[in-house]
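Input.
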Amino acid sequence: MKLAVFDVDGTLNETERYAVRAYRETLLAVGRPAPPDARILALFGEPPQRIEDVLLRGCGPQVRGEFARLIVKKESELMRKYGKAYDGTAEMLRELRQKGIRTAVCSNTTAEHIRSVLSAIRLTDLIDYSQPLEGGGTKTDSLRCLLKKTRPEAACMVGDRRFDKKAARDNGIPFVGCLYGYGRDEVLDADFVADSPREVLRGVLRLLGQAPQNGT
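Output.
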């Protein structure tokens, strides 16, 4: 079995369609100023604790707890209205599966949030495995856990941030960097760089040995 492992935000999910607004409104609701949109975008894909540390620096547990409760509610509300996968993502996943490649997601968030996102962007039926962040670990740990559970003969990681790349490197698998996501400069040295989901398809097939070196 060959496995393509995907990050979610900035790789499958066009997160800015709803999440910037969700963070801005939630910060204002707990009495915190909202930073520029670019600062919020730069946090997409980070673990929830890291996001709170940046946006709620100096705040006590009461404010943090209220923020955590409200952001889940607000994101869920807006995601159902505005959530969308990047154009061509469903077709890319469908073609990978038609070629016998299993698909998985590995994300710095909870299992419940992954399920909600995949449902909102209509990709649930195109993902075979899901790996959330567990027990305060890192993305490297999560990917290692996923690979241990699935035991593929070959695998590659697809993502848009430095921690996606690090997870792939630490686990000894190749990496496709998504230049259309939220960390373009962080993934320029990927094994294959992609400007679109269609290019992701080419990269995955090449890195998993199912395409000639001059593409598909």
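DSSP finds nine helices and six strands in the chain.
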